[in-house]
Specification:
The structure holds 2 protein chains of 2 kinds.
Chain A lengths: L3 H28 L1 H10 L2 E6 L6 E2 L5 E14 L8 H11 L5 H7 L6 E6 L5 H7 L5 E10 L7 H4 L2 E2 L3 H6 L2 H5 L2 E2 L2 H5 L1 H4 L4 E6 L2 E6 L7 E2 L4 H21 L9 E7 L5 E7 L5 H4 L4 H9 L6 H4 L9 H11 L13 E3 L2 E5 L5 E5 L7 E3 L1 H6 L3 H15 L7 H8 L21 H10 L11 H8 L9 H13 L1 E2 L14 E2 L4 H15 L6 H4 L9 E8 L8 E8 L6 E7 L5 H16 L15
Helix pairs in contact in A: 11-24, 15-18, 17-20
Chain B lengths: L15 H22 L9 H20 L3 H22 L12 E2 L4 E2 L1 H19 L4 H15 L4 H16 L5 H20 L5 H12 L5 H12 L25 H34 L3 H25 L17 H20 L5
Antiparallel strand pairs in B: 1-2
Classes of the chains: A alpha+beta, B mainly alpha.
Chain lengths: 611, 358
């Protein structure tokens, strides 16, 4: 039974507690307030921060791509140094560490901090450490060291670290005490997750009164595959070497990028950009000379997400989709199966009486072509005809930007939202953009503004349009799955929204079939894929060769699809100034596809120059 | 029961006083946290935004329990106790953080099951004591839960729960000599565990150090000074210049010290005064209600809340060793707020069922 008297007793007890607390609070806050305030003002605290270990980065097979190891460092407590004992410490340092020069030793004593870092002790005998710790001004703290075991291989994806600047200190407050911030790549994108909270060493009058332990950063699990990454880099390098051998270009060909994406999930299996750099160089601080050297070659650009190139013929799939969806075909063709005559050029007139002639890349023409043949042989005339049809039907009306709408639906001219920082979005030109440019960047547009010719350029991926390799990869993925979502490198990526786009299974089958024609006999990439024998009947792709202004060589593109029966991967290859897509980008992609299919690897060989 | 119309605030109206106190304590917490951050940026990292979100979630929990009849809670008490046991077993398999396994990492916030065990303990014990059921199953569950929290390790919560059991037994008609025997048994078990090295010595050392050493714990020493800094009116009302002081993390276990600094002795009197008034209101309800279960339940809740407050303040004042107990509804922390919201919700329900509705 409940005993009410005992309840009264409990309440009485609690009241006594309350009185005790109140009296102590009263004594503290009212009676001793002045005295304690004085005591606080006299407290001479200093805080010294020791960086926390950053989280480690793992590839899909558990290989460590970035590690954090704690190493013991010797520190000197400058508050314990006075004129009497300074010489003893100087001698101790000179005696024990031959590598330290006397001018460096002088510098140690000039620091304003409580502690000054002397040297990494991990390579020294533990006896030295124990002996030195007998002296009160020596202290040993463990500092984390970042290493990237694969050196250059993941430079652009993982990025590098460095000292935070003002803006970075604002954006990532934890970096102030860690004195380290991710500058690019995943190190930057996941800075808040991957960085820990620095340890606090609280010092009063030179004595350590409290050490608050650090909180390590969180590890990051990636979907990248190191083995694939290796093959991809090798192949891209081989392709670039071949391009230099076969083309007489004004610039050295040295830039390129490859993206390998899984079709079902959108995850990135491999991403390579050349030229690259070794992120380990940044861990201890890179020299200004080395930095400038690397910067000059644009080694810090991740061309897979930042390289803006006109896509050339790989863009033709957009018009392909539009044609089938809207039923818009060349004037003389009724449907996708109908043939038109390609004579190698197209001459046409506009309402204003002007007449123009457009030359296909193949001067003799492709002969009889329908939609499938136009993709297979990369026939420009066929697509120009479609552009003319759009122009004549919708030109100067609200619906004239039909092609642009289709390309934007596939993600062109907007960020793919991959989990990497500083991605570029590129442009898909239309009348509005040209009007805007007339004011802001008049050197880019003709005074006449947006014309039918611009649309004809756009439909074959030329002119003002720019895109990144990752955009192209993701656009092909959308066309093959009907799903538009952000590609991702880490399993922790937050943007997993899927936008469903109306794409029929019938269309996917049709598209795969026609992409397959490209690598088959008569297709633009046949020569590069021939070596794979019967396997070519299960592989598809699209070549692209985008013209550049001036005397620059063409941009070489290839989008590969592996396989046709079971589409698993998209491989997008770009070589800046690499010339014909079928000659350079296609054989690079072929070797990567050989690896993905686990068939025998054959060297990258120069293919056929088509477009 | 008198027929009342169902309202938005409760099945038959709501006790304005309970909801008022609940909101008041929450708002005091907001102001304290605002004083600590002095910035309001709208993201989940901001402690004030987090606390406001927890309060809103807490309000839902409050009203959820307001709609649950006490009879349902009685019948659910064993189920609740078993789920608490399961959650406490599960937490042992989580990743260790700061030397203990106490919480599930749910991404944006952590879930700490022991906060809910405290509430469930009261419900379960109130049911057992009012039915005088002392079978092996009941006792087994209580001891299992205590041990599971003890090995996390979480000595602070274990001590609170042991004191809770002690006080609730004290409120029955059990003979005092039996109670003394119970206490002696607990101590014996504890020392046997100590003898066989089954006790986390780190925590014991902290206690022995506390009472043997002249030098107090750094964070407690600093928090005591920080409280003193508040003066009579607190920093907000008096125009004293802001003096910097090194203090431990203030948002959770040490929040009372920054509350005292901001609002002074006057603030402490007001805050603890409101808690005292709340205790007296519940005391009057205990004497009013006829149900033995409700008597034990309400006493248990009040004892639990007061113990937490006393232990928290005593820690911050440096009177007892560091325990790591949050101050109810003042400390930052989702699990604690949600658990205490359920206490307030159940108390509100008892007020309603006893027709004490304003």
């Amino acid at each position: 039974m409940f005993n009410k008297y005992r309840l009264n007793f409990v309440f009485l007890l609690f009241s006594i507690f309350l009185v005790v607390i109140f009296s102590d609070l009263f004594a503290l806050q009212v009676l001793d307030n002045q005295e304690n305030t004085q005591q606080i003002e006299n407290q001479n605290f200093e805080v010294f921060y020791i960086p926390a270990a950053r989280g480690e980065i793992f590839d899909i097979n558990g290989n460590k791509l970035a590690t954090s190891n704690l190493e013991p460092y010797l520190f000197l407590n400058l508050r314990k140094i006075n004129d009497n004992n300074k010489n003893i410490y100087v001698q101790l340092l000179e005696f024990n560490f031959e590598d330290i020069t006397s001018s460096e030793i002088d510098e140690f004593f000039k620091s304003n901090d409580v502690f000054t870092k002397i040297i990494n002790l991990s390579e020294y005998n533990t006896d030295i450490r124990l002996r030195l710790l007998d002296y009160e001004a020596f202290e040993v703290f463990n500092l984390p060291t970042r290493t990237y075991p694969y050196k250059e291989l993941f430079s652009h994806v993982i990025g590098y670290i460095g000292k935070p600047n003002k803006d970075e200190q604002n954006d990532f407050p934890k970096s102030i005490n860690n004195e380290i911030v991710g500058k690019t790549g995943l190190e930057r994108y996941y800075e808040n997750t991957i960085s820990g909270v620095a340890s606090e060493v609280i010092v009063q009058n030179g004595d350590i009164v409290e050490i608050k332990p650090p909180v390590s950063g969180k590890d990051i699990q990636l979907v990248l595959n190191t083995e694939t990454q290796n093959i991809v880099k090798e192949s891209l390098q081989a392709g670039i070497t071949l391009a230099n051998k076969n083309f007489d270009t004004i610039n050295l060909i040295e830039r390129g990028a490859v993206v390998v994406q899984k079709i079902d999930t959108g995850e990135i299996v491999s991403m390579v950009s050349l030229p690259d750099f070794d992120p380990n160089q940044f861990v201890l601080g890179i020299s200004e000379f080395d930095f400038k050297q690397l910067n000059r070659t644009k080694a810090f650009n991740n061309f897979a997400i930042q390289g803006l190139y006109p896509p050339g013929s790989v863009f033709k799939v957009v018009a392909y989709w539009l044609a089938l969806n809207e039923g818009i075909f060349p004037e003389t063709a009724l449907n996708a199966q109908d043939y038109i005559d390609c004579e190698g050029s197209l001459s046409f007139g506009f309402d204003d009486g002007s007449k123009q002639v457009y030359q296909d890349w193949k001067a003799d023409g492709h002969g009889k072509v329908n939609l499938s043949q136009a993709i297979k042989q990369s026939c420009n005339v066929y697509f120009w005809d479609i552009a003319l049809k759009i122009w004549r039907t919708f030109g100067n009306t609200d619906s004239e930007a039909l092609l642009q709408e289709y390309s934007k639906q596939l993600g062109f001219s907007s960020l793919s939202n991959i989990d990497l920082p500083f991605e570029k979005e590129g442009v898909v030109p239309d009348r509005e953009l040209f009007e805007e440019w007339t004011i802001s960047r008049p050197e880019l547009v003709r005074p006449e503004g947006w014309l039918g010719g611009d649309l004809m350029n756009l439909i074959i991926g030329q002119g003002a349009i720019t895109t990144t390799p990752v955009q192209v990869s993701n656009a092909y993925r959308t066309l093959l799955t009907g799903e538009k979502s952000a590609p991702f490198i880490s399993l922790d990526s937050s943007d997993r929204n899927i936008e469903n786009i109306n794409i029929s299974e019938e269309f996917v089958e049709f598209l795969l079939n026609d992409l397959n024609l490209v690598t088959n006999p008569g297709g633009t990439a046949y020569r590069s894929f021939q070596i794979m024998g019967d396997q070519i009947f299960d592989i598809g792709g699209k070549t692209g060769t985008a013209q550049n202004a001036g005397e620059l060589n063409n941009t070489s593109w290839f989008v590969g699809v592996d396989s046709i029966s079971n589409p698993m991967y998209i491989v997008v290859t770009v070589v800046e100034e690499g010339g014909s897509g079928s000659a350079v980008a296609a054989p690079i992609s072929r070797r990567i596809i050989q690896h993905l299919r686990e068939s025998d690897l054959t060297p990258v060989e120069f293919g056929e120059i088509t477009e | 029961m008198i027929n009342r119309k169902i309202t938005l605030l409760g099945p038959e109206g709501t006790n304005i006083y309970v909801i008022f106190q609940y909101l008041l304590f929450n708002v005091i917490s907001w102001f304290t946290l605002f004083n600590i951050t002095s910035e309001l940026s709208f993201n989940l990292e901001n402690i004030l935004v987090r606390q406001i979100i927890f309060t809103i979630l807490g309000l839902f929990v409050f009203f959820f329990f307001t709609y649950i009849p006490i009879s349902n809670i009685i019948s659910l008490s064993t189920v609740l106790m078993i789920s608490s046991t399961i959650l406490l077993i599960g937490v042992l398999f989580t990743e260790e953080s700061l030397g203990a396994r106490r919480r599930y990492d749910l991404g944006i916030f952590d879930f700490q099951p022991s906060e809910f065990t405290k509430v469930i303990f009261v419900i379960f014990l109130a049911n057992a004591l009012s039915r005088k059921s002392n079978n092996i199953f009941t006792i087994g569950l209580v001891i299992t839960n205590l041990l599971l929290i003890y090995i996390q390790p979480d000595l602070g919560t274990t001590v609170i729960l042991l004191l809770l059991v002690f006080f609730l037994f004290f409120l029955t008609d059990v003979k005092l000599k039996n109670l003394v025997a119970f206490s002696l048994l607990t101590f014996t078990v504890f020392f046997v565990l100590l003898e066989f090295n089954l006790v986390n010595t780190f925590q014991i050392e902290r206690i022995t150090d506390f009472y043997s050493n002249e030098v107090k714990d750094f964070s407690q020493q600093q928090s005591r000074l920080q409280i003193s800094l508040g003066g009579f009116l607190g920093e907000n009302l008096s125009n004293t210049s802001n003096i910097d002081i090194f203090v431990p993390v203030q948002t959770t276990d040490f929040i009372f010290s920054s509350f005292s600094k901001s609002f002074g002795f006057l603030g402490c009197v007001v805050l603890l005064g409101f808690w005292a008034i709340f205790g007296l209101r519940v005391y009057s309800l205990i004497t009013t209600t006829d149900s033995n279960f409700e008597k034990f339940l309400l006493s248990g809740f009040i004892i639990l809340l007061y113990l937490q407050i006393f232990i928290n303040i005593a820690t911050v004042l440096g009177l007892i060793p560091l325990t790591g107990d949050p101050f109810p509804l003042l400390s930052l922390g989702g699990s604690s707020i949600i658990a205490i919201s359920s206490i307030f919700g159940i108390i509100n329900r008892i007020f309603i069922e006893n027709n004490l509705v304003i």
